[in-house]
Design goal:
The structure holds two protein chains of two kinds. By secondary structure, chain A is mainly beta. Helix content of chain A is 0%, strand content 51%. In chain B, strands 2, 4, 5, 6, 9, 10 and 11 form a seven-stranded mixed sheet that branches. In chain B, strands 1-3-8-7 form a four-stranded antiparallel sheet, with no helix packed on it. The chains are: A mainly beta, B mainly beta.
Chain lengths: 114, 113
Amino acid sequence: GDSVTQTEGQVALSEEDFLTIHCNYSASGYPALFWYVQYPGEGPQFLFRASRDKEKGSSRGFEATYDKGTTSFHLRKASVQESDSAVYYCALGDLTQVVGQLTFGRGTRLQVYA
Amino acid sequence: AQTIHQWPVAEIKAVGSPLSLGCTIKGKSSPNLYWYWQATGGTLQQLFYSITVGQVESVVQLNLSASRPKDDQFILSTEKLLLSHSGFYLCAWSLEGANSDYTFGSGTRLLVI
């Protein structure tokens, strides 16, 4: 079945560091890729999506480019802030489906230290 | 603006007791609705989805059931809770189509003891 693999566990950075969280997918249909962010005690929030090869999604200084060749959608940010500390989820949808049935990765916890 | 409200915010329940969690969406007609479950520190597992009133599809069997009695309401329930039901339950809505993003509620934290 369709699956998403992202950077395991926790990423610890200092403020103004560069962030990369890797996301790779395996899908048989026509994938759409998403990034969500979850702060403690809250539901996940949509960051952005991409559904075509080489399409770039971005929001709040985060960005990712859909690469069909490497089946990847890595999340990047040039300069992280302490307020970016949260859990980030990569998610996979199938454009052939009428109903979204997002498959989420296991999440990557980002901890940014001042 | 659309709003999504989940209730209760948190519950502590005994094993074997019944459960009912609710979710209401305001400001959007005929949304797709979803229930997700998240174990502590875990990923998000889709449980059910619904595209219209009275129709609910199960994605994962966890001895839970769901119903959509009104266009804007989604209910998750069970008659007998298990310890394994503990976790964070999230309701979400989206527009039609797999390219639509989800808007999640604030969740219900459930502890089964």
